[in-house]
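We treat protein structure as text, and this decision shapes the records that our systems exchange. Below, we set out a record of this kind in full and without editing:

***
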Amino acid sequence: MLNNVSVGRYFPTESNIHGMNPLSKIICTIIFIIMVLIARDFQITGILTLLVMIMIMNTNIPLIVYYHIIKNLRYVLLITFIISSLLTLSFASGAMILIDIVLIVIYLAILTLTTPPTEIVYGLEKVLWPLNYLNIKVNTLALNISLALRFIPTAIDESNYILKSEASRGIDYRISPKTWFIAVKDMIKPALILSLRRLNNLKTSMILRLFSTEKTRTNFRINKWQIFDSYLLVIHIAIVIVIIMRGVILWDILWHSPMTDQDIKVIKNNQNKKQCKVK
């Protein structure tokens, strides 16, 4: 039931994206999310979609993995599309929001699939280091984020274990939605208990190994900044500049566009109404 969920899992293989510096991956992810949020037309969205496809091709990860990630979110995406279409009263706006969510989910999946959790912590520490000047413990914050990412596959594994134990006892949750709901409802409590037990074991092992965020820690891997990191970062920055310049040019055209005859009539009518009120 939950075997196809890949969020938070690392997919070990050799690729250009796997060999990138975690710092550059996280910076590119932040830039990409900003690009998706400020993109307002389908042309820019098409460019971002092409960028995501190029990233997927460079990961050497089977496309079926990304397909299952989107498939597991199909109901959430459908509800989001319906709500956004009703609120904006536009099918195009709902489709735009749907595409944006899919692009962000796939890009985040690329980050988690190609980067081990420990390397994500390393990248987050480098990105968030300016917060040290605000007396914020960046090491602790990055560690908590890493444990949260690691908790997702842990909870999924425990849920699969419980569902298989229920199936071995004769419970078939595929018969009807009612039996599926009952199976999931009975699964939540023991899954949380087992997940918390594993997290408690992880905490105990960290204490026994004298793990501390107060002291300076070294990294096991040597993360060097390579040419591909600079190449991909330059592409992201160039697309951001294009989006901003395009928005500025369109705003300038709309702001300085000549008035039509209908606009002049509306202005004259408003002036006449104000004169009548004054008289």
Q: What stands out?
A: The two ends are 76 Å apart (CA to CA). The mean pLDDT is 76.
